[in-house]
Amino acid sequence: MQIKRSSRTTLLFLIPFLVVILLFSLFIYYSVSNYSENYLFKLLEARANKVAREKIDNKNAIPIEESSEKLPHEKDFFIAINQQLNISKEANKIGIKEAFFREAIQKGSSEFVTEKYLYKGILYKSKAGNFIVITAAENYFEINQAENLIKTLLFAIGIASLLLLYIAIYFTRNIFKPISAITEKVKEISSENLHLRLNENNTNDELNQLTMTFNDMLDRIETSFETQNNFISNASHELRTPLTAIIGETDVVLSKPRQADDYVESLKIILQEAEKLDNKTKALLFLAQTGFNGKVQKKEKVRIDQLIWDVKENLESLNSKNKIHLDMELLPENPLKLKVFGNTQLLHLALSNIISNGCKYSDFKIVTVSIGASDDFVYIIIKDTGIGIPEDEIQYIYDPFFRASNTKNYEGYGIGLPLTRNIIRMHNGKIFVNSIQNQGTTVQITIPTWKPEEV
With contact defined as beta carbons under 8 Å apart, do 45 and 122 qualify? Predict the structure, then answer.
């Protein structure tokens, strides 16, 4: 397959150049041929006038046969135009067409070409009468130069073809060599070794751009595979834990008759575990719905500052320990810059997750929420002074069910951040998390501002 592709590319290089060279060679040949022919006809015309003057007007001139200015194999003919003129007979005698004589008489000049000779005829008027003076000379180009020019051009075409073939093969190999290397490397990559990457160079050519794009795609695929594997592993574990507790408690209760209080206590445990299972199941379903292949959500214009006030009031009403401070110093003068196009309930949920995490993991110290905006984006910054996230674990914060090692004393399922990121992505936004353990966490959310054409 590669050989066929390389050969096809070589021909695509070679054929157009050969066609151009052939056309250029034909142009050179016919240009030289026409130039030589026209030049010789001018010489013949000059000789015809000269010999006419010497032969007809000047009887004492040097004989034509002895003239040093004669052309190669020159032949001169003087034909009087009178009543005895037999054009057909004269044409046969010289070996040219009758039309040659008629053209010379009517137009005053005529030309005729044979394989070996060029004939130039002129109408010469003198005191002795009118004559058709014909001067013929060897077709020097056809006899002496044409063959040599053709050989030279063919030799040049042959050398050019070999050079072009070499260049075409060289460039074809250099073009397909990196492509072949990419193909071979890609064949090695499978779901078992998604960590492999194509070799990138420091150039800005198209192949390097292709390599970088492919590596970026592999990064996303690897992340997706890891997330999926972690999701399945964690989901099965998280769902199995409450189910095991429910089944175990039920088995204990049913193992022998017990007092009414024991049944009530067991039912409370079963209910508690069932509620955990229900919450985790709902969280999983909601997480799936907010993924990239989830259902389309209804969107509308949303004022971010008003939404954050609603989130603040809601969280503080749910838990009086929550302390949220809204920093409005960066608010723009134009309130339209605070509008985004999105789903109010989902954005409310996303911001509630981040702010409530800040309150929970800072042991209910003050969480500061700052709002700013530019012409294109709305910025939301949530900052707390809580336990933070260990540096070596921050890369896993978006994995479903992942919980940092320093959160064992805090309730949670590890669904909040993945869910929030999905919601922000649905709104074409970005989320950045910066955290230092035991010092706090800062989360920045960026969402494009609403544009009139979006409605």
Answer: yes
* Average pLDDT for 441-449: 94
Tell me the pTM.
0.47
- What does the pLDDT read at residue 388? 93
Are 351 and 380 in contact, with CB atoms under 8 Å apart?
Answer: yes
What's the CA gap between 228 and 449, in Å, rounded? 32
What is the rounded CA–CA span in Å between residue 372 and residue 446? 10
Contact of 355 with 346, CB cutoff 8 Å: no
Rank 272-276, 297-301, 439-443 by mean pLDDT and report only the highest.
439-443
From residue 258, alpha-carbon distances to 244, 247, 250, 271, 273 in Å are 21, 17, 12, 18, 21
Strand (E) or helix (H) holding 440: strand 440-448
Amino acid at 133: V
Chain CA centroid to CA 62, Å: 81
**Mean pLDDT value of segment 356-372:** 93
Strands 324-327, 367-373: pairing is parallel
Region of poorest pLDDT, from 142-156, 224-238, 270-284 = 224-238
* CB atoms inside a 10 Å sphere around CB 405: 10
**Pairing mode, strands 430-436 and 339-342:** unpaired
**Cβ neighbours around 182 below 10 Å, total:** 16
Angle, CA of 411, 416 and 422, to the nearest 5°:
170
**pLDDT(25) > 80:** yes
- Banded model confidence at residue 118, pLDDT cuts 50, 70, 90: confident
**Alpha helices, DSSP H, located in 319-402:** 344-361
Distance CA 417, CA 437 (A): 17
Q: What is the DSSP letter of 173?
A: H
> Tokens 């056309």 correspond to what residue?
23
Nearest to 74 by CA among 82, 66, 86: 66
Beta strand extents in 88-185 (DSSP E only):
109-113, 117-126, 129-138
B/e letters for 235-245, b = 16+ CB within 10 Å, e = fewer, are beebbeebeeb
Q: Which helix (H) or strand (E) holds 431?
A: strand 430-436
d(CA 91, CA 81): 14
Residue 308: which of 447, 409, 155 has the closest Cα? 447
Average of per-residue pLDDT values in the chain? 80
Say how far apart CA 60 and CA 341 lie, in whole Å: 112
Contact 297, 332 (CB under 8 A): no
Q: How many CB atoms lie within 10 A of CB 48?
A: 24
Nearest to 326 by CA among 362, 370, 360: 370
Contact (Cβ atoms closer than 8 angstroms) between residue 82 and residue 129: yes
